[in-house]
Amino acid sequence: MDAAHIRNFSIIAHIDHGKTTLSDRLLHRTGTIATRDMEAQLLDSMDLERERGITIKAHPVTMLYKAKNGETYELNLIDTPGHVDFSYEVSRSLSACEGALLIIDAAQGVEAQTVANVHLAMKQNLLIIPVINKIDLPHADVPLAKQQLEDILAIPAELAIPASAKEGIGIEEILEAIVERIPAPKPTGAVSLQALGFDSFFDTYKGVVTHVRVFNGELKAGMQVKLLHSGKSVEVKEVGSFNPKPYVRDKLQVGETGYFTANIKSPKEVKMGDTVTDSRNPSGVLPGFKEIHPMVFSGIYPINTADYEHLKTNMGKLQLNDSAFVYQAETSVALGFGFRCGFLGLLHLEIVQERLRREYGMDIIATYPSVIYRVTLTDGTVKEVDNPAFLPETTYIGKLEEPMVKAFVICPNENIGDMMALISEKRGSYDHTETLDARRVMLTSLLPLSEILIDFHDRIKSLTRGYGSMDYEYADYQESDMIKLDMLVNDESVDAFSCIVHRTKAETRGRALALKLKEVIPRQQYQVKIQAAIGGKIIASESVSALRKDVTAKCYGGDVSRKRKLLEKQKEGKKRMKSFGSVNIPQEAFIEVLKS
User: Are the CB atoms for 233 and 226 separated by under 8 Å?
Assistant: First the structure.
């Protein structure tokens, strides 16, 4: 189709504001999906997405729409995730579009992630069409949502389209607005083909399938193309689009979105944001996306060590589908061979682990999540540490810095006190407050990334009864009094339980870990000591009592010295046993402790 009749757009919103329901409705209205094939969350193809009601991957789909002016348009939609951990997916999707539908829940108004996504879209110079969704709800407040649109996002309220994706209200107006307002794609004017690879996945039969948006020229089967990042030249085997299942096309022209397959068998050869061009007459590089840096690290190990190679292969396939996920091999005394993996946040970590278990059938165990600390040694050298095992001795450390994040928390007015208490409990420094409307405020604060990893988001939701929301951006490093906490079992350090914590929280953490270990370590023939230590100082201690045989059972009557002699003999035996005995901590114990 000619470029003048093509529209590329994304759907952006805060989590759970109705993006996926609206995309389902657009697919149905344009006739892309027949009524009998309609089902909820049509573009969310993963079980995980359906179970949790969230979008994890961006999904491209091509629709044909006959507008009121009688012309037929090709609409290329990319449905994007809403959670802060997947904002990288959003920025990649936006780079393939000229416009974006911004959805705001009429009952909840503008939330933290709405603001972040609008900034991403404005940075890409996209035309934004605001849609106020869920107007059918009894507690919907459309005038307030329009006011927030102007006050917080500086978007004129008269541009907003009231709609209800669930009831099918306003769908026609949205489609007409897409055709009228979003600009048609223009060729870049380069000498030959220029296409941006914005996503990919691995197919057992076809190899690597790359999602592309064509910016210049045309892409068709049989062409020799070059991937500029890897420098590899390949022959295109097949091109097509999604509706939402893949279908083959003759060619992809300027402005069209789709996929291509070539003889690419290794996931390492395709890089997200790479430019695809003609091998014989190459064009210049398109602006890709910035390299993403993982914020949270965790070790992932196979429960059965024989699965190591299998896990390595599957991680390569998963990384192709999720380029924000990084990994490298590492070993642990307690857990054997495994991988040190980097994630964008805790939900990302949870989703990757779950996908490895479900999609690839892997039995895995993950260590406690940590962040990258910057250590300046006494001789002036700087090293980055993401694993407590590699932290140098205290005597060699000049200063230790931890990563900070700038957090934006939106909450109801009555919860300001609770939020400020939570921020100070998490070692955060409160910056300023902005009043968003009569009911809500936005608190801006600086927090250590390690403190918001585990339960910060959950605590916000429970303190505000679900009305609070949060978004964060990476700030910088800040010097902090962090120390390494070691767990000793029978005076031997267990590296899987070591962690880097703030000095003020070390004792509480050490006690909690010691108590948990006491529950899960099986009893031995002798007493087992469990200790939490900072350097040479023991800060918490527990013990697992010994299994004991009643050696005095055969004594009846007689002098007490007979009993004492037998007990002393038993005591000597236990002492001798303890001196050369070693405690084997079972795999289940590791799993239990790491879960908690």
Answer: yes
Identify which has the larger pLDDT, 11 or 292. Answer: 11
The residues with which 469 forms a beta bridge, in sequence order, are: 410
pLDDT per position as a tens digit, 329-359: 877 766 778 888 887 777 777 778 888 887 7
Please, what sign has the CA dihedral across residues 392, 398, 403, 407? positive
- CA–CA gap between residue 507 and residue 540 (Å, rounded): 7
Sheet holding 127-133, edge to edge: 59-66, 72-79, 6-13, 99-105, 127-133, 161-162
Radius of gyration of the chain (CA): 29
3-state secondary structure of 507: helix
Domains 296-366 and 484-595 share a fold: yes
Dist. CA 328–CA 340, nearest whole Å: 5
Angle subtended at Cα 197 by Cα 195 and Cα 203, rounded to the nearest 5 degrees: 125
Could you give the CA distance from residue 474 to residue 406 in angstroms, rounded to a whole number?
Answer: 6
Q: For the chain, which residues make up each domain, given as ranges?
A: 3-181, 195-278, 296-366, 374-479, 484-595
**What's the CATH superfamily of 195-278?**
Translation factors (2.40.30.10)
CA distance 540 to 510: 6
Rounded CA-CA distance 58/201 in Å is 12
**Residues present in the chain in total:** 596
- Burial of 33 from C-beta contacts in 10 A (0-12 / 13-18 / 19+): buried
For residue 587, which phi and psi values (nearest 5 degrees)?
Answer: -55, -35
Q: Hey, what CATH topology would domain 296-366 get?
A: Alpha-Beta Plaits (3.30.70)
Q: What architecture does CATH give domain 374-479?
A: 2-Layer Sandwich (3.30)
pTM (2 decimals)? 0.66
Asked if residues 169 and 136 have their Cβ atoms less than 8 Å apart, the reply is yes
CA atoms in the 13 A half-sphere facing the CB of 44: 22
Pick the CATH number of 484-595 from 1.10.1660.10, 3.90.440.10, 3.30.70.2570, 3.30.420.40: 3.30.70.2570
Mean pLDDT of 157-176: 83
Residues 8, 93 contacting (CB under 8 angstroms):
no
Q: What is the pLDDT of residue 425?
A: 85
3-181 maps to which CATH number?
3.40.50.300
- Which pLDDT tens digit goes with each residue over 12-50? 887 777 777 888 788 877 777 655 555 554 444 444 444
As a whole number, mean pLDDT of residues 222-239 equals 84
Structure tokens at 32: 């892309």
Between CA 145 and CA 110 the distance in angstroms is 7
Nearest by Cα to 357 from 296, 319, 302? 302
CA distances from residue 566 to 66, 398, 547 in whole angstroms, order as listed: 96, 56, 16
Return the DSSP state at 118. Answer: H
